[in-house]
Design a protein that fits this description.
Length: 420
C-alpha cells in the first residue's frame, strides 16, 4: 500500500503533483472565506497571512478572508453559519467532519475533479480512501497527516528496570512485554502507571488504539459500515486492562488531562500523544519522553491517524467554488508552497514532498511512526454517537460492569446510529 512509503519522506525525492492554475476562477475579483481549525500554525494569523500573501502573488483576483476556530466552539460556529445560510467557502479539517458529517448531509461541493490520476498516484492510499464517501465522491482534498502514538516517561522506566521490555530503536513492544513493563513500574512504587481516561471524548483515539492493538481487534469493519468492538480480541484487551495493577479507568479525566498528568510526572505513560504534544509541552517536561507505538501481539502496530485537508461548502455560487479549488490547489500542490503549507501544520505531507523537516530531530524521530498508520475508520456512520458511547462504556467498565456486557451495549448503540 502506498502509505507504507511515508517513511521515505526523509530520504526520497519529491513526487509533487504538477501544480498550475487548473481550477482558476474568472479574471473578475472573487471573495471567498476560509475557516480553519487550529491545526498547528494554521491557527496562527501571522502564519496564515503569509501563506495567503503567497497565494495572492499568483492569484490577485481572489480575496481570502479567514476565520479562526477552536475545538470548543468551532463546530457550533459552523453549524450556526449553515443554519443562517452563511456557511464558509473553505474549511480546513478532517474527514470525520468534511466527509462523514457535512458531506453526508449534502452540504459540501464535490471535489472529484481535483483528484486527477496524478493526484491519486501521489497521495497515499489510506488518505485517498478517507477523503471520499462510500459512493466514491470526494469531499476533501488532503494536505497533511500524522499517526497518534503513546509515550512513556523514560526516566521512570529506566529506574524501574522496565526499558528491557521495550524496543527503543523501533519504538515498539509486545503485549506481553507491555504487561511486564507496567508491572515493573508499578512494583517500583509508581502507583499510577497509566490511565484509561473517560470523562469525555477528548483524546479517545488513544484509548481506542490501545484496546484494538493489544490483541489485534478492530473498531469497525473494512467497509466502514459496522462497528466491531464486540470481538473476542477487543473484549480480551479490555479485560486485561481492567485487571492490571497500575492501569486505572479514570472517569474524572479526558485526554488533555491525561497529557498534563503525564507531563508533570503523575502518570508514567500517556495514551493521548503525538509530536504536537511534545512540542507544546517542551517547557514543562523535566524528563526524557520516549514515544512508543501501542503494544501488539503481532508486532504490527495499527495506529490511529489524523488527516487534515480542505473541504468546500456548496453555497450555490459556482465562481466561489472554483476560486476555492484554486486556493486549495495552490496550498496543497504548488511546488514551492505545498511544503510550507505542510510545515505550518506541524504534521507530515500526504504524499512524498521530500524531507520537509530536514534538520529537525524531533520531527525526524516521530516520522518513524507514520508507516504504522492503520485504517482511517473515523468516517463510519453514527460516528458522533459512537464516540459518546465509547467513553460511557469505559466508565461502565471502570465502575464494575461486566466487560462483555458493556461492550455489547456499546456495539448495539453504535450500530443503531450507523444504520440511520
Amino acid at each position: 500500500m502506498k502509505y507504507r512509503k511515508v517513511l521515505a519522506v526523509a530520504l526520497a525525492a519529491s513526487m509533487l503533483v504538477p501544480a498550475g492554475n487548473v481550477f482558476a476562477a474568472d479574471s473578475e475579483s472573487t471573495d471567498i472565506t476560509l475557516w480553519t481549525y487550529p491545526i498547528g500554525n494554521w491557527g496562527d494569523a501571522a502564519t496564515v497571512d503569509g501563506m495567503i500573501a503567497n497565494f495572492n502573488e499568483a492569484h490577485p483576483e481572489i480575496n481570502v478572508t479567514v476565520e479562526y476556530l477552536d475545538y470548543t466552539n468551532g463546530d457550533d460556529q459552523i453549524n450556526t453559519a449553515i443554519e443562517g445560510g452563511q456557511a464558509p467557502d473553505i474549511v480546513l479539517e478532517g474527514p470525520e467532519r468534511l466527509v462523514a458529517n457535512w458531506g453526508a448531509k449534502g452540504l459540501m461541493a464535490d471535489l472529484s475533479d481535483m483528484w486527477t490520476d496524478d493526484a491519486k498516484e501521489a497521495i497515499y492510499d489510506s488518505v485517498e480512501k478517507a477523503c471520499q464517501n462510500n459512493d466514491g465522491v470526494f469531499y476533501e482534498y488532503p494536505l497533511c497527516m500524522t499517526a497518534h502514538t503513546m509515550a512513556v516517561n523514560r526516566d521512570i522506566f529506566e529506574k524501574a528496570d522496565a526499558l528491557q521490555y521495550l524496543d527503543e530503536e523501533n519504538h515498539t513492544w509486545t503485549t506481553e512485554n507491555f504487561q511486564k513493563a507496567v508491572q515493573a513500574v508499578y512494583d517500583s512504587g509508581q502507583e499510577n502507571v497509566g490511565a484509561v481516561y473517560c470523562s469525555g471524548q477528548g483524546g479517545d483515539q488513544g484509548t481506542r488504539a490501545l484496546v484494538n492493538n493489544l490483541y489485534g481487534g478492530t473498531f469497525t469493519n473494512a467497509e466502514h459500515t459496522e462497528y466491531t468492538l464486540n470481538s473476542e480480541e477487543n473484549i480480551k484487551a479490555l479485560e486485561l486492562l481492567n485487571s492490571m495493577d497500575g492501569i486505572n479507568f479514570d472517569a474524572s479525566i479526558a485526554g488533555g488531562d491525561e497529557v498534563n498528568l503525564f507531563c508533570n510526572g503523575t502518570l508514567a505513560m500517556a495514551f493521548c500523544w503525538n509530536v504536537s504534544q511534545e512540542k507544546n509541552n517542551a517547557e514543562n517536561l523535566s524528563f526524557d519522553v520516549l514515544p512508543m507505538a501501542f503494544p501488539t501481539e503481532s508486532g504490527d502496530p495499527q495506529l490511529c491517524g489524523g488527516i487534515w485537508g480542505f473541504g468546500v461548502f456548496d453555497n450555490g455560487d459556482e465562481a466561489k467554488i472554483e476560486a476555492s479549488k484554486t486556493f486549495i490547489d495552490f496550498m496543497a500542490n504548488d511546488e514551492t508552497q505545498a511544503p510550507e503549507s505542510v510545515k505550518a501544520s506541524n504534521f507530515w505531507p500526504v504524499k512524498d514532498l521530500g524531507n520537509v523537516y530536514e534538520g529537525d530531530e524531533l520531527m525526524t524521530e516521530y516520522s518513524a511512526f507514520i508507516p504504522y498508520m492503520g485504517d482511517y475508520y473515523q468516517v463510519v456512520g453514527g460516528w458522533a454517537e459512537a464516540r459518546t458511547a465509547w467513553w460511557n462504556m469505559l466508565q461502565q467498565i471502570g465502575s464494575g460492569t461486566d466487560v462483555k456486557t458493556a461492550v455489547e451495549e456499546f456495539t448495539t448503540t453504535a450500530n443503531v446510529a450507523a444504520a440511520q
